[in-house]
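Technical note accompanying the year-one report. For the benefit of new consortium partners, we illustrate the data format agreed upon in the data management plan: each record pairs a sequence with a structure-token string. No post-processing was applied to the example shown here.
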Amino acid sequence: MFTLMKSVGLLLLLPVVALAQEHAPTVEQCRADAAVWSAKDADIKTPAMKELWARVHEMNQCLEVDPVESAHDYTFKYISVSNTVGREYESRVIDFLNRHDPTWKQRFDDEDAAGKR
């Protein structure tokens, strides 16, 4: 009886696991998203960081899905999107620190000069 209940419980969990499973993007999806997200007029200021990190995650997957030999221009775009998001993150963190503790920069510089790294 216990084994039957365990089996039924396992079968009930399978759809949840299947829904939670993540699939790598297709080469076509990678290239389309990279083209939009790496464009000079791409909006990097409006989306929340959670969305921007999802883009980085996708671009990292794209580096594995889309072979470098056949995707020279796109490989650069995948990396460019990730770098742009990283710079935006740095900018937002610095803005956050400045809003919440304007003295952080001087303290950081003092500690850095003292060799605390």
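Partners are asked to follow this layout when depositing records. Residues 21 and 90 are 31 Å apart (CA to CA).
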